[in-house]
Amino acid sequence: MDQPSTSLKTDLSHAGRGMLIGGFDVIPGVSGGTVALVLGIYERLVSAISHVDVTLLKLLFSRRWKDAAERIDLRFLLALGTGIATGVIGLASTMAWLLEHRPQLTSAAFFGLIIGSTWLVARSLEGWTWPHAGLAALGALLAYWLVGQPALAQPPRESWYLFLCGSIGICAMILPGVSGAFLLVVLGRYRDVVGLVPRLLRGEEFSQTLSTMAIFLAGCLAGLIGFSKLLKVLLRNWPRATLAILCGVMAGSLRKLWPFKKDLTPDEVDRVLKRLANTWPDQWDTQAWLTVAVAIGGLLLVLGLGAIGTRTNDG
After folding, report:
1. What was the pLDDT predicted at 4?
2. What distance lies between CA 61 and its chain's CA centroid?
3. Which residue, among 116, 27, 26, 11, has the nearest Cα to 73 in the 3D structure?
């Protein structure tokens, strides 16, 4: 009778870890991969994800259900996935409210989180060389230019683009230091995606919202099967070059998260069509200093998680 109890405790433990990962996954700048590393389940998670392949499909077509479940560590994934979904649902409504009512402070928190994540990725690349610095600079320049383009300021509203966002964002699950939510911010669909959960819970345009969420989740599944494997190949064969480019991309993308904005279209009521420009505060009042303090708090949070993750990994 002890074994089921032990297994249930393990499942609940994995679900609890999943809630932490899911909660942090909603926050741009905090990588779900980093949290998984801190919690000691990163390698197991990556191994399970990597086994979603042709071999698994053959087992399923052969109706070898037990072998298929063991191949992808199904019990672990179900417990962890339940926790992740709970964490995402629990925090998504809060993030949607903050984006709507506290945009400057929310952007400041994101800005600090991304600076910290960039530093963690840069530090993980030991022994920087001039070629690596050149790749990082190239990635930074490309990202800085890209996030300033009108296409990302007003991203496509079509389903294919949402599918693509899901495919790209989910890849951060296997890469500590890079946030999937941050990638959604860069792609211009973060606000829309985090707004899906509260809209669904309130029953607003239920069928359309459910359809939109299904498209996004289908993109996530495609990313897990396809893009994540490509990323694993890059990290296995060219890890230093890949990390250098990623570090540069994250640094260059900070342009989009600068918290102090000037509204270039004050008469426009549709937030999708609004155009904002980065600026400095007109005066350093309480709000301005609070914005800086929030950014510093986000930076310290990520650096703290990184320090814990380093100790966990070394141990």
Report:
1. 41
2. 33
3. 11
For 280-294, give the DSSP string: --SS--HHHHHHHHH
Strand-pair partners of 261: 278
In order of 7, 105, 127, 140, 213, the CA distances from 147 in angstroms are 47, 20, 29, 11, 24
Name beta bridge partners: 276: 263
Helices 74-101 and 190-202 pack at an angle, to 10 degrees, of 100
Phi/psi zone of residue 275: left (φ > 0), alpha (ψ -120 to 50 degrees), beta?
beta
Task: Specify whether the CB–CB gap between 152 and 186 falls below 8 A.
Answer: yes
CB 60 within 8 Å of CB 48: no
pLDDT(28) > 80: no
Cβ(58)–Cβ(197) below 8 Å = no
Mean pLDDT of the residues in the chain: 81
Q: What is the pLDDT of residue 309?
A: 62
First to last CA, the chain: 33
Residue 275 CB partners (closer than 8 Å, separation 6+): 153, 263, 264, 265, 268
Instruction: Decide: 197 and 93 in contact? Cβ < 8 Å.
Output: yes
Cβ-proximal residues to 30 (8 Å cutoff; 6+ apart), any chain: 24, 113, 117, 179, 181, 301, 302, 305
Considering only residues 147 and 22, tell me which one the structure prediction assigns the higher pLDDT.
22
Percent of the chain with pLDDT over 70: 87
Between residues 299 and 29, the one the model is more confident about: 299
Pick the residue with more confidence: 175 or 99? 99
215-229 mean pLDDT: 82
Tokens of 152: 């990302």
Chain centre distance of CA 122: 18
Top-confidence residue, 277 or 297: 297
SS3 label, residue 203? coil
- For residue 188, give both structure tokens: 């211009």
Does the predicted model carry a pTM greater than 0.90? no
